[in-house]
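Amino Acid Chain and Its Fold in Token Form
===========================================
Structure side: the spatial fold of the chain, written down as a series of whole-number tokens.
Position: the record begins directly beneath this header, with no further notes in between.
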Amino acid sequence: MSIKHTSVAVDPSELIREHLEEVLSSKAFQDSAKLSQLLRYLVEATLTGSADPIKEQVLGIEVFDRPSDWDPQIESIVRVEVKRLREMLTLYYHRENPLTPVRFEVPKGSYKALCVLTALTSSTRPQEPHRSYDKQAGAQKDRHAAPVQPVHSDTGPYGIQLQRLTYERGDVTNAAFGPDGESVVYSARWGGEPARIYTQRIGQKYSRPLGLPYGELRDVSATGQLLFTLGEGFIGTLAQAELSGGPWREIVDGVLDAVWLPDNKDIAAARFEDGEMRVELPLGNPIHRLTGKQIRIRLSVDPAGERVAFADNSLGPLDFCVAERTGKLQRISQNWRVSGKHPLVFTQSAGAVRNSSRRRR
């Protein structure tokens, strides 16, 4: 039974069926009778708690009216239509119903509907851990035994208030404000899964996935364009997508970090090319090459878009550098040393810890 939920006050099955009718009444699904029938079939199979996986041949016969001797190896209608269903659900949640407490997903490589329920709890209280509702066992089992700490708001020395936004277990790998200044876009690894990209309005009840491939957020432009790297490693293919939804496109391979320039059109990037890491300003124009073993790098561009700052430890000691479009390089601070295994913990030669960073929870 593939239903996940957090602190839902009503019967999960009732809530799911209500949402199913809501989805099927949308224009996109009303215009596609077969996709509507397919979604209903998959959701009902989930609700009845069928232990056997749904087979492609069964869907072909019972949903797409194929004969009893139909061979899915000869005709791929089921695979094609299930892919269309995934795409249509993604568009539906992006454009028509982004804040619904229920979401339907059909994971790749599966013909099972995943019904994700998100509790609409107060933003000033932590959500309960995700639970997995097992229809056959008739019980709810905690997926994570560790308790969630109460949320609190800290006021720093400059009057800055901190508000906790996420309560999942895992790592937030990167985050940025959206163009409106009232929403946050972030990538995170929740529950041991690869990083995905989410968005959440400040003060909103919960986050929602953007429906993009697994990857890590790199930057968000003032016009709502996302930069992210595909895959699970710290280096990947740079891709671009709109925050509002729609298709995404690949840009270039071998990228460790990338940020938009102030014109919201050009990009500064750190990437591998011909066996070396190089900083490019803009993309395709190398202004600095790192010849040693640089593991990770973060870029920051000045307001004019003429300089980029980064940390360079490719030669052993760590230097904070500023490089101009012309290729002129200035080392602001030199001969710092990396302390321990974390790339963001540094010490000077005197041995005092100067900067540290913890994994966000």
About this structure: The domain at 1-121 is CATH 1.10.10 (Arc Repressor Mutant, subunit A).
